[in-house]
Design brief:
Elements (H helix, E strand, L loop, with lengths): L1 H9 L9 E3 L5 E6 L4 E6 L1 H10 L8 E4 H4 L7 E6 L8 E5 L4
Parallel strand pairs: 1-4
Antiparallel strand pairs: 2-3, 4-6, 5-6
Length: 100
């Protein structure tokens, strides 16, 4: 995104907003709707967790990672503390990438 935003800046264009919130689990995704209005969406607990992560106000980072994902990776992550997530009963440990 940094490379793309630098190219856009050279063209006089604004940066593109970008963010990713990662959680681990089973979910369903696909086209939902009617022939007149068809949307690609994801449903299930991981999408609820990811939406909750994106809304963490104290963590102004472009990549947010749940404790469940952090426990499964050997990548060095920066802890951002535990946060209450909308729609999730228990606080979640939140992490980000070192270069973010």
């Amino acid at each position: 995104m940094t490379h793309l935003d630098q190219a856009r800046q050279r063209q006089g264009l604004p940066p593109l907003p970008f963010g990713a919130a990662l959680h681990l689990g089973e979910m369903l995704w696909g086209n939902i709707g009617t022939a007149d209005r068809l949307d690609f969406t994801a449903i299930g607990p991981p999408s609820t967790w990811s939406a909750g992560l994106k809304a963490v106000p104290a963590a102004r980072r472009s990549v947010l990672i749940s404790g469940a994902v952090a426990a499964e990776t050997s990548t060095k992550l920066i802890p951002l503390g535990e946060h209450d997530l909308r729609g999730i009963a228990t606080p979640c440990a939140v992490f980000t990438l070192p270069e973010d």
